Amino acid sequence: MISCFPRASQKLPKSRMRTGSIFYSIVRKWTGTQVHKCRHLHHGCSLNRISKILEEPREAESQKPPGEVRRWGVALLKYGLVIILALALYGAGLFSYRLLFPPQSPNEIKALQEQVQKMQAQLDQMQEQLAQLSEALTPLPQGVERVRIEASPDDDTPLGSADAPIVIVEFSDFQCPFCRRFWEQTLPQLKKAYVETGKVKFFYRDFPLGFHPNAQPAAEATECADEQGAYWAMHDHIFKNQAEWAGDALVKVRFRRYAEELRLDAAKFSDCLDSGRYAEEVQKDYQDGILYGVEGTPTFFINGYKVVGAQPFEVFKKLIEAKLKR
Predict the structure, then answer these.
(1) How far apart (Å, rounded) are the C-alpha atoms in residues 263 and 259?
(2) Residue 120: pLDDT band with limits 50, 70, 90
(3) What are the residue ranges spanned by the domains of the chain?
(4) Partner of 230 for a Cys bridge, out of 4, 99, 225, 247, CB 3.0 to 4.6 A?
């Protein structure tokens, strides 16, 4: 398991409940022990686990293009390269011709410049299309899929340069052990290789799961710390001490102590946390995640890709490097 998913008993949207009620008996009959196995071997039980099982074969097929599509794609790549070569040769011939017979008038010079600019634009467009086609034909790791949406970072405080070309938006739960695993194992490598070098801008958005009761106040605590410019300091402190506060009934008392340890204005922090003024902000993140198709934590959106689970650094590196080359 590499991600946290809501339990089946959690209240679901009506459309999801209808799907489960219609197909549950079919799943039990046709998949045998598959439903039971998901509790132990899969990444977790999602918001719509029953319909997810039915969809898995189709999702697997969509991850890898059919052989016919792949053959056509390779053929298109070959033809595209031939066309680029032909345009390059044409441009070279045109350039050589003009060296032997240089233009004599300003109108001829202007026309030549327009031809060169037009050819350059055509080459750039074809190279971009070939890059997109090559990317579409590249097999993706398990837990990664291409999506047509770009998750909004909202107004959350980012890690990294504002001009970074790659944007990563994480939907996470402070009480989720797999989110902590990502924070501990993968995020430091991402920060060193891409965030601190100005290539990636990283956002954290809240997705508190219903069976993690202390995830909501933990998210509110980071927002209160943000008022004093200590969002990421509190974010790290809460993940670091997850085992300490996860099952604590007096969790806000611990968060006040964390504020003191970070040398924040304890009274101001306490007033903010007790007021609950960021409860709606946290729930807004959660609802946005639902709209983007988030079903478990952690889930990441990276410039057209959706990554589910505490994936190793190599998975993120592959996606980021592919985007940087374009």
Answers:
(1) 6
(2) confident
(3) 14-63, 67-137, 166-325
(4) 225
Thinking of the domain 166-325, which architecture would CATH place it in? 3-Layer(aba) Sandwich (3.40)
- The pair of three-digit structure tokens given for residue 11, joined into one six-digit string: 């209240």
Q: For residue 302, which phi and psi values (nearest 5 degrees)? A: -130, 90
Rounded to an integer, the average pLDDT of 105-123 is 78
Please list the residues that pair with 144 across neighbouring strands.
307
- Give tens-digit pLDDT for 297-319: 999 999 889 999 999 999 999 99
Distances (CA, A) of 19 to 10, 54, 55, 81, 150: 15, 11, 12, 47, 27
Listed residue (119, 4, 138, 10) closest to 65, CA to CA: 138
What is the C-alpha separation between 249 and 95, in angstroms, rounded?
Answer: 77
Query: For residues 86 and 269, what is the distance between their CA atoms, to the nearest angstrom?
Result: 66
Residue showing tokens 């029953």: 50
**Cis (ω within 30 of 0) for the bond into 102?**
no
Q: Determine the pLDDT at residue 19.
A: 42
Distance CA 88, CA 99 (A): 16
- Distance between CA atoms of 1 and 41, rounded to whole angstroms? 7
Residue 26 buriedness (CB in 10 A; 0-12 / 13-18 / 19+): exposed
pLDDT band at 140 (very low <50, low <70, confident <90, very high): confident
For 144, how many CA atoms within 13 A lie in the half-sphere containing its CB?
A: 21
Please state the length of the chain: 326
